[in-house]
Amino acid sequence: MVEINTLKISPALINSSCAWASDLEQLTELYDSPYTGAVTTRTATLNGFQEGPTHTVAFAKSDVTSINSYGYSPHPLSSYLAWMKGLLKPAVCPKKPFIISITSSDPETLRTMVQDIQHLRAELINTPAQSFIAIELNTSCPNIPNSPPTGYRFPSLLPLLAVLKDEYIKDPTLTIGLKLPPFVHRGQFDAVIDVVKGLCLSGDIAATASPCPFAFFTCTNTLGNSLLFSEQSTQSAEGTPFAVPTALGGLAGDALHALALGNVYTFCQLLREPDNSDLRGISIIGVGGVTSKAAAERMRQAGATVVGCATLLGKEGVKAFEMLRRQEVA
Q1: Angle at CA 75, nearest 5°, toward 174 and 112?
Q2: d(Cα 257, Cα 25) in Å, to the nearest integer?
Q3: Which residues contact 275 (CB under 8 A, 6 or more apart)?
Q4: Does the pLDDT of residue 207 top 90, yes or no?
Q5: pLDDT tens-digit readout, 291-307
Q6: Which of 166, 168, 209, 325 has the fewest CB atoms within 10 Å distance of its CB?
Q7: Angle CA(73)–CA(77)–CA(79) in degrees, nearest 5?
Q8: How confident is residue 203, by pLDDT bands cut at 50, 70 and 90?
Q9: Is residue 160 a contact partner of residue 103, using CB atoms and an 8 Å limit?
């Protein structure tokens, strides 16, 4: 069992936020699987994202690689809260927690979303030691037109992160994480560390709770501006030579694995540095190319305490977790 603030995750294997965790049927199947230790929703906005025929996914012929042109979930946050309530509230002891992935570019909208989630948590069986709802702020979707991932301009996230800090001060049992884009040089990692360090608590508040408002980093989201041709894919976009209608999309699966491992490893090393002692409570959820037993084990060796996957889920369905779990050491 892995504990991340008030979340208890067992087994330490989850889905990452993705298109295959969009609706109630998909979420129920993930929740009912004995091979998932928690369930992450597709990233929700307050009112839902307008999805169209250009939003899709394609899988590579050669390996378990995917490219997608999806944006955020078409379902508003209120739908996810109703579904979570229906799955969690009737249970005397819920099976596992949910990580609700959310995003907003507006601080007050984000505050509304967090407070709506907190209203649900107040209705559920939560204790100071264990909660069944967490929040993940997605800073890293590469497929939103005219809106590059804010995770690449981390200081610009401060107004949003300040909202999350405020809500954590009100309720330190609230588990909050950040989904990060794939970084490629040290300056990008340092920017994240510097901003998060600046948000750590001090004084009496820090004496009764973890000084850092953020309990986990999810590393990493898909790699944007990627291209697969239809000849490389098991399907093609009608009328174009490309795998997806937008040509460019977010790369995931095997092709992302080495970079994802590097992101997990780098953050783990930085979090252990003496100057970052207030951040040592941050766990890493390793995502990116977890398509086999060996890949999952590499994530753990790189430093991930929880391993997540999406592309394998999209290709194999929920049995993907049985495949990974049965192959892993318990």
Answers
A1: 40
A2: 29
A3: none
A4: no
A5: 998 999 999 999 999 99
A6: 166
A7: 90
A8: low
A9: no
CA 309 – CA 290 distance, rounded (Å): 6
At 43-55, the pLDDT tens digits run 999 999 999 999 9
Distance CA 120, CA 68 (A): 32
Q: What is the CA radius of gyration of the chain?
A: 19
- Number of residues written out for the chain: 330
Structure tokens at 195: 């901003």
pTM: 0.96
Query: Count of CB atoms within 10 A of residue 32's CB?
Result: 13
Cis peptide before 220 (omega within 30 of 0): yes
Q: What tokens were used for 198?
A: 């600046």
Residue partners of 25: CB distance under 8 A and separation at least 6: none
